[in-house]
Amino acid sequence: MQELEYIVLTHSTNILKPLPNSLFGWIRVVYSISDEEILSCSGLDAYVFLSFFKMGIKIFLALAIMAIGILSPIRYYFTGSYDKDNISMLSIHNSKESKPPEFSEDFPKYLWVYPIFTYVFSIVVFYYLYNFTNSVLRTRQKYLASQNSITDRTIRLDGIPKKLLQRHRLKKFIEDLGIGKVMDVKLIYNWEPLEILFDKRKALLDKLEYLYASQYELDIDIYNHEKPPAVNPLRSRPIDIPRAEKLIKQYSQELMDLDEEIRTIQNKFDSNLSTIDVKLYKDFKQVTSAFITMDSVASAQMAAQTVLDPRVYKLIVSLAPAPKDIIWENFKLTYYKKLLKSYLITLVIILSYGFIIFLVVPLTSLLDLKTISKFWPAAGEFIGQSKWLTTFVTGILPPLLFTILNLSFPYFYRWLSQYQGYSSNSDIELSTLSKNFFFIFFNLFLIYVAAGTFWDYMSYISDTTKIAYQLATSLKRMALFYVDLILLQGLTMFPVKLLQISDFLILNILGKLFKSLFLRTPRNYRTYYYTPQIFDFGIHLPQHILIFMIILIYSVVSTKIVTCGLVYFIMGLLVYKYQLVYNFVHPPHSTGKVWPMIFRRVMLGLVIFQLFMCGTLALESAILLSILCSPLIFVTLFICWNFEKYYVPLNTFIALRAILNPYDFDKAFDYDDQSFNSEENSETEDNMPSDVISSTSGPIDESSFLLDGHHIERNLRRRKSTIDEEREQFTDYTYPYLIDPLDGPWVGFSGDMVTMVDYKRVQFQNILEEGGNARLRDDGDHTIISKALSVSEWE
């Protein structure tokens, strides 16, 4: 069913390169897709996601070249081994004694190569991490600065005092601050009574659609790739089922009564003022939040960075999420209800970690045949008789079981995040990413590494220094497991993702075998077959970040892990670029905010790598070399502080100078470093773009220029809209149920033309306004409408 998904995705004005039919021909086409094409086809978030894989390729390519060409030959010359897979017997013997290693210069001189390459590898990571950070920030600023959608011009205001909870007062208050003109104010209400009515309406529509499908039967034509998919009534006259006809009359009457009640509520809302009189209609309580649309993007950006009230939790300003990204029902939650939900979900997550420990700790015993023999002698003896079985149980089975475990829990944490009270889907996605990363980090790294210490904890409690040695030994012991995990993920999971076997099973096998259970109406078929899969960063990204950290941690001591990691990220880039451009959609518009989360976790991996090298050298009695590596940890922490202070704001907001000139973004800033009093300055001004120099005779400062909304609008009308602007076109911050067209039950569809039933009591004014997009046919007690359905590609 890839053709169906391809048809949906090409509804966009962007032109995708066709893929050849050859087995590996797609690689060349996918590889040649530029960053500009990714931005135009898939959006900013997809570009940021793929930038992580590009960064991984460049970092591990540089590390692999140095490891293969320099580090491994030196190690082989002195030790006879390309990789330092095991701690020397001397170190293991010393770790069993109570005395810690003494400060001494009597250690093998080749060990000097480890602190040297620890510094070199850290510098490589610093360089590429900041290089890609600058690239992502520059692209983000250019991409968002060129937009002028309602989302970019709207702020969200929370904690509004009751005195200001009126549209005109709130508008005057914002305008009096001098940060711009307010174009619109959308007050927010608790629309729970309307939500209940729409839930009832959805249930009635489902019942009516099933009854119509039963009476007229369905002609299903969705597997013909030569024409758009269609599901329409098979019979021109209904089957004579008296009970079904009676139920249709009953449900249709209930639907008409319900629609009248909904219209009554909708008419109470003043669409011009975006308000409802809460004194007359006490069922709708006002929420202390509002969406305020400014006249320009610059005004919205300045307002979002402003502290409006000296009291805490009052007049808190933030950038508004996209209208289609909002979860409206969570606005009715008070601050304390959200806090309670957050604590309860945190408690559930902690309990789940306790459950995971009972699953993972026994699994770690499979990594060592001696541990298996210790707790199950018969099984250990049986496994030890076969070399292949030993390799399977200790090398292949643990990564396989771990992968299955990791595939199930992320969806559980995403489900938890949905009940935490977040007001947008992008917030849920970022929260899911954070939860899933900590789960995988806790599960794959902390428990596995500490498992060896856990079994012998009672014997080591008298001497805590042995725990540190055991942890270092565990990291070395885990090297084979991580190699197998990376190969399993790279060589098996990526091909499975590429083939999209789940699509084949769901769309073709389950869809045909069990269609009587969940494919009973035209709406079911369209939703099931006509909607592309949604790409969720919170599900896909955490494990790749942890794989990145693991490769980095072992980069100096294990060349094979670095080499496997390079292959892993090359395959990941090709597979995910194909999926994000040709198959998947990413509805949440988080404007690239996932990059700081990537940066922080890479820094965490770098600190663990440096600590690991310090501990490894200490276990080799090279205390001097271990001390020499320790300053790197403080350098890394300083770099983290520098990023948080100077880079994170650029990843949250749009710079005003970028808004001023989004077209010649790089060229405009080339003039900053030139001397103002030089003779070249006059020539520079002559060569500067005309839209940077105002034609007015008076002096102009940057702030007044940015607040000139007309200038910005004039500039932005000349540029091509982005995919996010296309998605947000014709949307605003009105509660969706207030403007819902109240379409009747579906009885069929052909492509984008949906056939639905409309009953006589319904007024046709809205239908007639559709013009060429709707056609009417009178069938006695009801009317059949053929209407062009215009929705987002993921709806």
From TrEMBL:
The chain crosses the membrane at residues 59-78, 111-130, 343-367, 396-416, 437-455, 545-576, 597-618, 624-643. Residues 676-697 are annotated as: Disordered. Residues 341-617 form the CSC1/OSCA1-like 7TM region domain. It holds the Pfam family RSN1_TM. One of its GO terms (molecular function) is calcium-activated cation channel activity. It is found in: Membrane. GO terms for cellular component: plasma membrane. Residues 241-268 form a coiled coil. Residues 16-131 form the CSC1/OSCA1-like N-terminal transmembrane domain. Residues 152-330 form the CSC1/OSCA1-like cytosolic domain. Keywords: Coiled coil, Membrane, Transmembrane, Transmembrane helix, Transport. It is a multi-pass membrane protein. Belongs to the CSC1 (TC 1.A.17) family. This is Calcium permeable stress-gated cation channel 1. It comes from [Candida] subhashii.
